[in-house]
Structure formats: C-alpha cells, structure tokens
Amino acid sequence: MNEIKQAIKTIRGRGIVIRGNDIDTDQIIPARFMKVVTFDGLGEYAFFDLRYDEEGKKKSHPFNEERYQGAGILIVNRNFGCGSSREHAPQALMRAGIRAVIGESFAEIFGGNCTAMGVPTVVLSGEDTGSLMQMVEHDSSLTIEVDLPSSTVRCGERTFPFEMHPAYRSALIAGNWDSTSVLLSNVDSIESTARRIPYLCGFSTPAKK
Amino acid sequence: MSVKRNLFNTVWDLHKVGTLETGQDQLFIGLHLIHEVTSPQAFQMLEERGLKVLHPERTFATVDHIVPTASQARPFKDRLAEEMMQAIENNTARHGIEFFGLNTDHQGIVHIIGPELGLTQPGMTIACGDSHTSTHGAFGAIAFGIGTSQIRDVLATQTMALSRPRVRKINVSGRLKPGVYAKDIILRIIADLGVNGGIGYAYEYNGEAIHALSMEERMTICNMSIEGGARVGYVNPDETTFEYIRGRKYAPREDEFERACRFWREIASGEDAEYDHVFDLDANTLRPMVTWGITPGQAIGVDERLPSLRDLPEDQRDIAEKALEHMGFAERDRILGKKIDVAFLGSCTNGRISDLREAARLVRGHKVARSVRAIVVPGSKQVSMQAEREGLPAIFQEAGFEWRGAGCSMCLAMNPDKLEGRQISASSSNRNFVGRQGSPLGRTLLMSPAMVAAAAVTGEVVDVRDFGEYGQ
Ligand code: SF4
Asked: What residues line ligand 1, using a CB cutoff of 6 Å?
C-alpha cells in the first residue's frame, strides 16, 4: 500500500493576518461550495463571502490584499475553525497556500483535521498573537518560522514559545500524521478488541467497570 | 477497579485498542455513519491507497444535506448534487455498505435515522463526518464528529486516533415550566459556558430535568454540544432510553435485549462518579431563549434585552459588535417584536416527530402572517410518514406552511432552500453563523420549534408563553 510519510518540522513563509474571534467553518468555506466529490480546486473559495459581495466585487479582506499574496502562514485569534466538521475548510486554506496556522485557540475538530493534512495549528498567548499580528501588518515581507522541535515561532528579532497538542506535534515531527497506516498496523489488536465489546457479541461478554 | 468511573471513561476503555506513539489512544468505532457531503473524498483516498473497508457491516449510509425537499425526482436538476448522489450510491454498492437512499423508507438526516433504526445504542462509540454526531450521545453512546481524513481511517481500520477529553457534568435540577423546552436548556448552557467553553471536554448532561426528558428532547440537547465547543455530549441511559430502543429494526431482541439492558445499566455513571468539572443549572429559572447574533452563544431570554457592548467581557465585544452590525440590531434592543421573513421548522436539532407535533398544536387554527414564508421539513422519511398518519401536514398547510420531503434543507442551504438577501429567519436549527442559511447577508434567530411556530403566525418574535393556548 501506498503510504504517505513526511516529517514536518520547520515551516517558513510570509504571514497573513485575519483578526477576529470565533471565525467559523461556514465563513472559511460557505456550504454551497461543498457540492464537490474531490477537494481539488477549493482554494479559490476560501473566505469567499468575506472576499466578494453579492455582485462578485472584491471586498476588503486580507486574502484579497496584494501584500499578502503568496503568504503561507495564517495568523488568527480565538476559537478559529469552530462549527462544522467539514474538512473542506482546512483543505480550502491549504489549497490557497496555507502551510501552518498560528492562533490563540482552535476548535477541536478543525485542529485535528489540519493535522491530518500535515498543517500544524500552534497556539500563542493572546499577547504574543497580538505582537505577531502587529509585526506582520506593519511589514508583510517578514519571514515567519514555525519550528515544531523547539516549539517556537520566530519572526524578525522575536521568538515566541508556542503550545501545541502534544499528539499533533509528535505526529507531525515523526511524519506519521497520516494516521491510516499507523492504525492499520495494529489490525490484530483491533480484532481482539472487537471480540470483547458486548454489543458485537450478542451481549454475552461482561462489561468491565 | 474503581466504581467512581463515569460512563464516558468506561465506554472509552472498553473500546481502547491501545496507546499510539503520539500518546493518543486508538479507539474502536462501533458504529460509523456516512452521508454524501463528507464521504466521497474519503473513499477516493482509500482507493488511491488500494485499501478496502475493514468492517463494511459497521457502516451505514444515507443522504440528507444536498437532497432537494420539493421534488426528489432523479436525476436532480442540480448537476453537482446529482453527481454527489451517484458517488455515494456507487461507493456504498462497491464496498458493501448498507445505504438508506431516497427510494427507501429510512432516508433522512443521518442523526435522526440512526436512533430511529435502533442503530444508535448505549455504550457504543459512534463516528460520523458531521459535527452534530454528538446527537447520538442522548443514548449514552459516545459519539464524535470527524473530518474526512478520519472517515478514511474509520473505513480502513474501524478505529481512529483520539486524545481522551476531560468530562464535565452539567447538572440540570428542577423541572421545565410550560413553554420552555430542551432547546432552551442547551441555548442557556451555551450562553453561560461560551461557544468555546467545551473545547477539550465531553459533556455529561445529568440531573432531574434531563432525565425527565423524552429521548427526542435529549437528542436536541446533545445535538448542540458542539455549538458549545464540546465534541461529545451524552446522557446516561435509563428506562426511557431502553423503551425507546425496544423493538426497533436493529435493536437486540428478546433475551438479547434483556442482556443488553443489563449492560446498559452497568455502564451508566453512578451517583458517586467523578468528573473533571461540574456545572449546575436550575431548570425552574429557564425561559424561552432566542439568539440575537451570529454565534449560538449569543442568546438571551425572549423577554430580555440585547446586551450593551460595555457590559460584556472584553473578549466578547468584538464578535458582539460584528453581530449587531450583521443583524442590524442595536445594543439594548428588545428581541421581542423583531420582525421575521422566514420560519424554518426542521433540522437534526428539532426536526423530529415530537417537534412537529408541538408546532402543529400551536399553529392549528391560525394562519401564517402574510409577510412570512414558512416551511416544515421533517427530519426523516419516518418522521414524515408518522406525521402523515397523524394528519400534521394538513394542519401546517391550512395554516400556510409548505410541507416538504426529508432532509437538511434550510439548516445549511446546500439544496435549493435558501434565505434571500437580508431576510431574517426564525429557525429551529442549530447555527446562526453568517451565511449559514444560504444568503451571505441572511440572518438567523435560533429558537425552539414552538417559538418558531408562534413567530410564523405573528410575523415577529413573540414569547410562546403569551401565544395561543399558553396565553389564555
Ligand atoms: S440538519 Fe443541519 S446541522 Fe443537522 S446534519 Fe443537516 S446540515 Fe448538519
């Protein structure tokens, strides 16, 4: 079988700042663009309704700004990616060129979905997020480095320590963020677990408290 | 072993295959549900890697998000919707997965048909590529919404990698007053704990008020756990649960049912179970709730005023300001009396038979306001057929509601049902995000189905306790 194994340790790129708490997945990709059977081509729909008005005219949004074109590192505030479980949201961001997301906090399903695609979501304090946002808004040509082994984000002269779900961090560093093959390697234990689950055996095995 | 364990940890351990190098647990998934929007890419990934579905008999499929609810004739007018429909038909046929399509009596919103068929049972682990999978927790299952990569994992391995969350007990004491519903309990909880208050937690809903609820009401509460940030929400199984399951298509039968009940009783959290956090709420103090903003946490009692920005904690002001701007509301406005354009009854939160019965009871003999477009979308074929047996469609139609086929419809507007322009809708669904109901400028007020019914008739937000027979 064809395994995907790629260690993700350090990601470098220019930043793009999207301010605001509770940015939900319906904003990241409106549902009407999910009528697709593959994820290809979703990049152009990222933040669609925030970028274009009803007539299709461009609105003011970081994704429309010239200075942010080609940026790979998204910087956000609190509870980013809340709402639906649609993987279309991180897929749209990734296909729009985003390789890592830095923010104050992430919705749980969104963070897991990003990891499964090899996109780290790292958490800075509110204060550090604010500083980094200001730096990037001031000079969008700055290179940001998200370094997983040292758990830091570097930008210009500054180094910010980040927190990250330890499982996500170690999976990305080890290159086994694509979980299918890891899970499948335990197929014997999977079957023996199934044999002790009462509802899979006519409720004839006792529940273990 | 300790007897102080809560249901969540008991069920987790029962399904734990092992601990992975990353520190996450590999968890066996007892029931996997799929629908047309989030599964095609997962099948594509499987096929690219030459993998097969490990336990096709543990996966069940239906279609809900994209199905038109006016005419369901094939091929669908919408070419993209038709393509998605064909993808799930082909994928399920090729992999030997049972599929409840439009030509069966069991098609419907995935979170409605699982319980209806008796597939959803206490003590199970359940996964589905949909964030409202938490609904199934009403049965004392632990049920996770997952993304497409995890759907691929579950298809290929019947397991997934997860970190064990903490467990918060939400203890709701007292009893609901007339005119106050399960929807109001959960909107209050989210308003109190915040839309991200549940991140990293599973919510156990417990207490007198919760156990007095029917299964359908418990589902409404568990459904919206995710709107409070909690991926999982559940209620311990009790006699109400067992009676609901008894006799359903996939329920255990006879002796096996008795053995099942024994197991289900055993796994429930005991009186002395331990939790990472406990939150108390008194049902006696609850009133009908309405959202005024763009997150489900922006909700107030129907007789309250919108907050003023100044009075909000600092970190909520920015989103509140955006909400006021989008909604066209002012600080300290009353929610009561806000005009509505659309009334939507349906969704996996409140599209079940008891919801429709209650709404029908209230609209009987009334007419929908002239300025309002009102639609009822039953959550499943079964709900629709039961409603027909009870004569509900006629009551709704006489009042001026459109009566539709089963599906998600205007909950997320992937089918032709959409808000237009700045229309404002009174909706029994679960999300009031900007653009959620199909128009980027559209506005949504979430409330109970009874409140939606009352708003449809009066053309504005009213307190259902002052409406019709409640008001007499
Ligand atoms: S009814 Fe709404 S929330 Fe429920 S599954 Fe369908 S789209 Fe999702």
From this structure: B 64-65, 109, 111, 130, 132, 347-348, 408, 411-412, 429-430
